[in-house]
Design a protein that fits this description.
Helix content: 55-70%
GO molecular function: DNA binding; transposase activity
Protein name: Transposase IS116/IS110/IS902 family protein
Shape: elongated
Oligomer: single chain
Pfam families: DEDD_Tnp_IS110, Transposase_20
Organism: Butyrivibrio fibrisolvens
Number of strands: 7
GO biological process, one term: DNA transposition
Largest sheet: 5 strands, mixed
Length: about 400
């Protein structure tokens, strides 16, 4: 039994190889993430006599290249939750040094103690890996878009208060929105009130035609009437115009990236076998569906429904001692926060749409009628949704495998 403990970090990994009886084959040493260094490590691991298992923490995205390289070389690799390693004690000392060398030794000892229970790392295929990466980028640009939107609204409060509420048209496929295009042209309240009503209406009509928006003379009059009552803090000059235009450009760039990723994620997700089943589930659309598949990955890697709910961190906790049994226990929240966020968005969509006869919505509505708090019935709904997801997707994938076998 050769236990290889790897503490992965950016650019390098610290490796320790141990055998039962505290026999150290390779003391802790740093391995750079270069082709020559990794090939040398693979050669050393393959030269060992007996069965070899490699273990590492699945922290962030740093572990994936190392896990992929070793798996492709035909080496058994297991990735474990960092919480399990942190809670594991490999000796009786009350000292707990936190160094890369100490961590790699601890992981190697953990590998020996959990030898029979270690699960082999299942490498995600290229599509799933790209989809997950795109989803993380999507979240990043969504945060940027929200920040840029708030920044623009704050500037408009100084130049054209409330202009962002003139239109509620949804974003176009290129990410542009009517109210954003409007404030780019009419960046100051004087851009409207400096004209007569007829002159503004005519100018607004031409602007709508040029931008491809619907025109309404009643809307033009409403904007003009509201604008006459507004007070701008900043003067109408080139500096103010530059500031507003810069904010609009930044928001449009973030919006364009968001919509581009949204379309590309749906295109990539459509290549996965479970796509038609997932997209037919209530609450899931062209945005949340790909996000859900990106964060769950291959559902076949989960042994049972409880494994998937635990991965998401929406599994109910337990607290029992003697005859005492706590009825309501917080969920673990030790799984994927990105998956939980997507699940809550799906639950929110179900509550807004209230689809008749949907098992998940009916379950949440029942909990809500019982007076359960918001997070309680939302988490319970997410748990039930994942169990249904697991059953439907796994059954469909197994049927595909059976048809291919025949």
């Amino acid at each position: 039994m050769n236990a290889v403990g790897i503490d992965v970090s950016k650019g390098k990994s610290t490796v320790t190889i141990r055998r039962p009886g505290d026999e150290v084959i390779l003391p802790p040493c740093d391995i750079r993430h270069t082709r020559s260094a990794i090939d040398a490590l693979i050669s050393e691991i393959k030269s060992l006599n007996g069965e070899t298992k490699v273990c590492m923490e699945c922290t962030g995205r740093y572990y994936e290249p190392m896990a992929t390289w070793l798996t492709d070389a035909g080496i058994f690799v297991s990735t474990v939750n960092p919480i399990l390693i942190k809670a594991y004690s490999d000796d009786d000392s009350i000292r707990a040094p936190k160094t890369d060398k100490a961590d790699s030794k601890k992981i190697a000892k953990y590998t020996l103690d959990r030898w029979a229970k270690l699960k082999q790392y299942g490498r995600m295929d290229e599509i799933r890996n790209q989809l997950k990466t795109m989803n993380r980028q999507f979240g990043f640009y969504m945060d940027q878009k929200t920040s840029m939107k708030n920044n623009l609204i704050a500037l408009l409060d100084q130049t054209f208060p409330g202009a962002n509420d003139f239109f509620d048209s949804p974003a176009r496929s290129d990410g542009s929105q009517k109210w954003v295009d409007f404030v780019y042209t009419y960046w100051h309240v004087d851009c409207v009130t400096g004209k007569t009503l007829d002159a503004f209406t005519d100018h607004y009509h031409k602007w709508c035609s040029r931008k491809g928006y619907n025109f309404s003379s009643a809307k033009a009059k409403a904007i003009y009437d509201v604008s006459k009552e507004l007070i701008a803090v900043f003067p109408k000059d080139d500096v103010t115009k530059m500031i507003v235009h810069q904010a609009v450009h930044l928001l449009n760039a973030a919006s364009q990236n968001v919509e581009m990723l949204r379309a590309k994620m749906d295109e990539s997700a459509s290549k996965l076998p479970e796509y038609p089943i997932v997209m037919n589930m209530n609450g899931v659309g062209s945005t949340l569906g790909p996000q859900l598949m990106a964060e769950i990955g291959d559902v076949m890697r989960f042994e049972k429904r409880g494994s998937l709910t635990a991965f998401a961190g929406v599994d109910p906790g337990k607290n029992e001692s003697g005859q005492y049994v706590q009825k309501s226990v917080r969920t673990s929240k030790k799984g994927s926060p990105n998956l939980r966020k997507t699940l809550f968005q799906i639950m929110d969509s179900l509550i807004q749409r209230a689809p008749a006869g949907d098992a998940v919505y009916d379950f949440m509505d029942k909990k809500r009628a019982q007076g359960k708090p918001y997070y309680v019935y939302m988490t319970a709904g997410a748990n039930k949704f994942l169990r249904i997801y697991y059953g439907r997707v796994k059954e469909y994938l197994e049927s595909l495998d059976a048809n291919q076998t025949e």
